[in-house]
Structure formats: structure tokens, C-alpha cells
Amino acid sequence: MKNLTIYIYILCLLFLQYSYCTVTKQRGRLQQERLYENLQIKALPQEYRYFVLLNFTSLYPPPPTEQQSCPLHYGLFPRSLGEILDKHSVQELHLSLTQSNWRYGVWGGGIPRTIGPVGAQLVAWLGKNKEYVSPGETTNQWRDLVHSLGGMMCSSLHEMKEINTVLPLYTFSPWGLLPKNTSLLQGTIPRETVCTNNLTPLVKMLPCPSKGLSQLLLPKSLFNNLYHSLSVHLYYTEEEGELAMRIELYFSLVFNTRKWERKGFSISDLFGSGVTSLCPLVVREESRVRIDLSELKDPHLLQVKNNKFVFSSSPQRSTPFYKLLHNSTAVNPKFKWTSPQTEKNLFNTQQILLINRYTYSNGLEDGQICSEIKNLFNTSLMLSHLETVPWYFRVYTHTIKTRLITDTGQILTTDLQNHTRLYKLQLARDNAQPLMLEMIHALSPNTTLHICTYFQRAVLHWNSYPPDAHHGFYVPPIVLRPVSFSRGISHLLNLEDWTPLEYTELIYSRPLLISLATPDFSMPYNVLCLVCTAVGIGFALIYRLSTQPVKIGLDTVDTGGEGIIMRIMKLFRKVRTD
Amino acid sequence: MFLYRATVITVFITLRILLQFSGISEYLVHQQILSTPLTSQLRIREALSLIQRGQSPYDADILHETPIVIALLTFFTNLSDKYGMFILFLMLDILTGLILVRGIELQRELQKKQEKKIVNTDSDSTIEEIWKMLQLQPDESWESDKYISLYFLNPLTLLVSATQSSVIFHNFIFALAFHSSLKRSPTTPIYLAIATYLNLYSIFLTMPFILIHRAWRKGSVILFLSLYSISLICLLLVSNAVCGDWSFVNSVYGCLLTVSDYTPNLGLFWYFFMLTFLHFNLFFIVVFQLIIPSLLILLTCRFHKDPCFLLYTTVSIICIFKSYPSLGDAIIPLLLAFSWSHVFPCLKQVLIVLGLFIATCTLLPGFYFLWMYSGFGNANFFFALSLVYSLAHLFFVTDMIRAYLSREKFTDYCVTNNS
Question: Which domain of life is it from (chain A) (predicted)?
């Protein structure tokens, strides 16, 4: 009953807003907020590993902007976010906070759009509609944005300064509608840890923070698993011909269920608490619980049980779903293996792209950064490859060496030109911008591409080192994006008539951790004293020599023998007697 | 004599080729410590590859090399991808040695004349008698052959040559300027302008060169200076034409003046500026960059009568107090010091200086290894050694100055009392 009053109250407010405001509409604005909650469970191709995805999607009328001379009214739209979006003219934004690596080699591709790189990543399209914004202004907007967002999300996003922010051209593509003249910026902090304080602001964004699937968002279970990634995606879409802003919140989690091996487990076992009531605002017809068993060779081996029905998937439809109706117990299916999980060949073989990245060096002076990209698909692949290296690892681009190797270890080619085109190269600037390389590779099926570059390590000003300087410095992960499956490798040669495709899944490598040589941090005053003493000695010596007459005593010259000394003594006496 | 020279140079070339083809040279090129960020061969290669890709090399902070040198090297690498640069650097090394030694020969003749002037007597016998008495007889055995071997058989020259750093260009131009000024050729200011263009610190060499120039042609200082500045402006304009814009000025001279790259080197600056507090940074940059001109003023007051010695002291002081000194910068001051070998008997701190040099040369690679590779040492180890290296140079120069002055005084004293 209470919920209903709130709902009516909100509707009244909305009505008031629209009766007051005279907004110039180019495209109709969405009049009604919509909220969907989805739960997706996927059996990963590794024993006892389950991928659980909680998804909260909401569609709002575009938030008010300050230019509109009407009282700012946000409705259900999170106001804190709305103000940030308006102030920094954000057109689209993707923020992900992730702990630990997604293991592509073991877990496969996961569920599209839900996997983020280790640490924090922010991808944003900035710019006002149809208005030209200079690059300098964009950088300022970005700086303000990361500060406000960081404050809101309780994470150190403000560390995405110019030195670890890039403007890639090709690798990222928008999810929604974008006006003209927007610029894309991407920043990463591989070091960022994710914990409870990042969860609270995300939960606050939800219209129903204590009902429905958000009841599962308990820190204890959310952060006590093998992999967790929290992400926020904001973009404009067209919903039934009307402009709307879509906010998607993803909580991607990988659980280890070994301890429930015998008796099976339910969702409430995983999270430590079940869903007791549903959110009244949710559009229930489109909110689903989805169970994905596509990775299993024989889905009958895993029995999924609800208290209403026993579910066993058929091979024809391996990702069944059921609607989230009025019954909250529907959110608690039970999983049990009908046979013990011992066989290795329970799972389908993967068709994926594997990426491995490593560095090798001897000492703190220089080294090599290498990446291995393995195409396990049966088809040829074209990949866009974004590589960002901070300036203090001085990468020498002329040392890039590549090798294309087949499954059998046969080297196909070592010439970069045969399979790779450099798309954009932004060179590093000291204390200002990182090196950014955007390349496009063509990989034939079952081949591995090795790329190695030589780099030298710079030494930083002592203020630029973080408090734990010996921890090392991170190189952000590589971002790979399969750009076209349909076109052949021959098209690589003419990139000009090649248009960016719509969104495809991004694949992230792990970040690299490399140490830099450090000064002795306790030395500033000592060095100041020592160097100034050396300079002082030099100056004093030369000053004395050049201003005062030289005294020649007898000891000045090594005269060799006694005879000569005597002769000079005589000479000296002679002078005195004169 | 010719045979001796030919043998020495052949030995040098053979050793150099051996280093090149055994891969040792390539290893040395990758050692940051042997060349500074301003002269590193690796950075030049990066620039060449960027140019080939159609990108301006000054977009990156990796390159601090002048555009004309880059253009020249592009030309030579286009001639022969593998050996173009190697042959160019080898030729420059050999020419530098020969020209420098020719210059020193001329300087020795000048020195003899000057000494006679000081003694103010025409008879050689009187001076020789005094010198013999004081055991300050100029060592006649220091012939040009000795300088040739001092340059070509010097492990330092070989090492610098193997690293192929662009300091070789500067040394070559300096040798040309030195030789032409002693040969009384009017092209000196042009060479000096090129040297300044390659390395901004060479601007301080104008003072000794003007004095050398004035010694034989009075009143043409303005001509010298105007020719110098015109050539310098021309060089900058040509570079602008080569690059297309002025972005190179910041890359080439900005780094040198503001000491923005803290890569370890043998100088006093890197560790100091790495560890200063940022709000004092500008103050200390100004102070440290003013050391050379202030010392130059003092030395000019003292040695304006003997500009050749002033030249030697200026070169040495630049080698110590420049922001990015490398091993290559030490070649010329050390060779020039030997052209003043007749003041060696008056040196007082030979043992100290020699000891310091030997200690630094043996310990430097070791301490660098301890810091960078084994992890047993830290930056202080290497810094201490680089400080001692600078001090050794400093003690040597001041000792040379003192020796020169006392020798002068002795001669003066004896002459006045003898007559």
C-alpha cells in the first residue's frame, strides 16, 4: 500500500513537471520510466564454476539539463548521476570496476558486454549536441567528470589523468545513439581494487534498493568469489520512437560451488540470502531468470529445479528462461548434477580468442613487452588491437617484431606488413600522454600472433612515485575487438573503404606490472647538500685561482733533486738581499 | 710518421669493425648510461622510423636531436640501410681525431711563441736554461704521433664510437672550429654556430674563440659575432624548413635547459633535479645553468691573454657542469689537457686525480649493475660515483689551472731575477 502511494506521488510529480516545462522536442521524450531486472546463470566450462549475472536496466526520459528553464525534476532517475551527466556533457558512459582476471582460456567468452578489464575502466563519449568542442575543453570536461564520478563511486577515478587517458578511434563503438561532434575517451586504472564502498553508490542508483533482485546485493557474497565486476552503462536509445536514456547496471560474478557438490545449491545458497519480495516498479513481463547451459555437452546432466517445476533443458534450446512473475520464490532455482562431475569432457570445446601478455627483462633498465593472440576460431578473424603504454615505459616503435605461428609451431611470417596495419599511433609525451597504438590484425584460423617491443624504463621525479614505489607500475590491458568476420583478409589492404561495425564483444588482456628504478627517497636533503658542496668546491677553487695571485713556495714544484732546491734557495736569498 | 699514423688508425678501424660485427656495439647502444637521452643512438633510430612512417619525430618526447642531424642521418641510412650510419660515424671519428691533432700541433707552435714573448728574450738559450734549472722544460717528446695514439687508442674513444651517439657530430664540429681558429681561417664562427646548434652549451665557447680570433686580427670582433649569429639563425631557419614548424626547439633545447629527463648519467644534474622539491625546481635550474657562465667570466678575466688555455678550461668546465654530460664529452678536454703537457710537472694532485679516475672507471659499471640489475645497491651508489667522477674532472682542471699559473709565475720570476 505504501509503495502504491509513493508511485502515485511520483506520477503526480512527473505530471507536474511536464505541465510546467516547455521543452523543445526534436524527437519525442519517453514519458514513462521502465525498469527491468534480470538474473542469468551460466554454467561455465570448468567444474563447479558458475557465472551469475544480475542486471538492472532502467529506461528513463532523458534527464533535464540546466539550459531548460524549468525546475529540474529527475523522477526516478538518479539525480547525482543526472547532474554529472549534464555538467560534463556526457553522451554515453561505461564504467566498470573489476576484481581479478576473466580467464578466457578456462571460462570461455562469458556473457557478452559483461566482462571488464582488471581494475577500473571508464569509457565516455563527451560533447554537446552539434556543438564543436575543442580538444582542450574535452580534456577539461574529462578531468572534471572523473573527479565527480570518482567522488560519487567512492573510487580513485581521479587518477585517470592525462597520462593514462587515450582517445582511441576504432576499438570502442557506442551502444546507443550519439550526436555529432562527440569525442571518445578511455581511461584505465588496473590498480584499483573493488570493495563494499563501491557497491553502496551503485545500489543507491536503483529505484528499488531493498526489493527484488537488489536483495541479493550483499557485500559478503558479492566480493567473496572468484571474479566480480560491477559496471554501469549509460546511453541514449530510441524506445518506440522516443528518445530515452538507458542505464544498465551489471553485477557479474563467478562462483565456486565445490562445497555444494553433494546436495546441490540454490541462488540463496550462493548469495546467503534469497529474494523475499519483488520490486513493484519492475516490468515483470520482461524481467527474466535465464539459465544458460550451452557450454555443457549434455545439459541433462545438470538438473535445475524450481519449487513449481522441474526444469531440464532440451538440446534444441540451451538457454531457457522464465518470466519473473509475482512469485519471488521463482528467483531461487536449485541446481544439482545428476552424475558426479569428474569427466573432463563434460563441456563443449571453445571457439574463442585467447590473449596472453607478458614482459621479460633483466634488471630495471629496459625490457620487452610481448603479447600472444591466439585465434581458436575456425574462421579468419580481423581484430582491432588497442595498446596503451604509459610514457615512463619508453617504447621504441621501430623495435616491434611480430611472428605468425600455426598450431604446429611453423612460422608463417615475421613481416609485420603481411598481417597488420597500423591504424593510429599516438606518441608518448613525458608527464603528459601515454603511447597509444591502434592496429588491425588479420589472423587465419588456428594461428598465434606474437608481438614484441623493446622498451626502456624512465626514472621519475621522486614526487611522481606512489607511496609504495617498489610495487611497480601497471601497463593497461590490451583491448581486442573482432571487427569483421565476413570480409576476407584481402580487404585488409584497403582500409579506407572500411566502415566501423556495430558493437562486438571486447576482449581484454591482463595488465602488466613492471618495476621502475627508484631513487633513495630519504635523500633529498643529502643530495642537495652533496651536489651543492661539489659545485661550491669547484666554484671556490676556480674563483681563488683566478682572482688571487699564485703563491709559489718551494714545495710547489717537484724539483727532483736537492741540488736544484739549493740553487733556488740561493736564488731566493739573492732576491731578498737585493 | 705516416706509417705510424696509418697503423694506429688501422688498429682503431679494425677494433671498431670488430665491435660492430661481434654485436658488442649493439649491446652498448642499448646501455642508457653510455649515451645521454639527448644523444642516444636508439632514439635517433626511432626518429628515423617515425619519419619513414610520415610522422613528425618531435611529436614524441623521445627525441632531443637536432633536425639537420636527423635529416643527414636519414640521407645516409637511405644510401645504405645497414652500413650508412656506421660508415658515417666511423669517418667522423677518424676525421675528428686527425683534425684535432692538427689543431693541437698548431697550438703547440703558438704556445712556444707565447712563452718566448713572456720571457721577452730572443735567445732560446736563456729560457731553456731557466726551464732546465726548474725542470720545467717543455716536453719535446710530445709530438703529434703521441696525440694520434692518445685519441685513437683511447678506450674511451672506441667506446663512444661504438655507442654511435650523436655527440660524435659535436666533437667533429668542435675539432673543425678549433683547427680553423688556430689556422686563422675566417670560417671559425660558422663552425662555432654549428656547434652551438648541436649543443647549446657551446655558446660559451664563443668567448675563447673570439679572444683567439682577436689575437691576430684586431677589431673584427663584431664581424665574428655577426657571422656567428647569422649562421646560427640560418641553421634554425633551415631546421624549421626541414621540420615544418618550431616544435623542435622545445624538444632539442627545452630538455637540455629544464633537465626534464632524469635518466642516470655522469653529471651532477640528474639526481639533484630528481630529488629537489618541485617549487624550488626553477630556482635551482637557473642557479645550475648559471654556473658555467659565472666561471667563464672569472676565467676570462684571468686568461684573456692566453685564449688557448681559456678554451681548454672552458671545454672542461662545460664537460663537468652541463646538464647531460656523457663519456663522449670527456674525450676532447682530456686530449686538450695533454696539449698542455709542459705544465704537468707543476701538477700537485696527480695522485688524487688519477686515483679518483681509476676508482670511478672501475666502480661505475659495477655500481650501476648493483643498482639496476642485481638489486643489492640503490641509486645512491651510482650517484656517489657520478659525483666523484665530476669531482675528479674538477680537481684535474683546477690543478691544471694552478699548474699553468705557477709555471707562468716561475718563469716570470726567474726571468725578472735573472736579467
Answer: Eukaryota
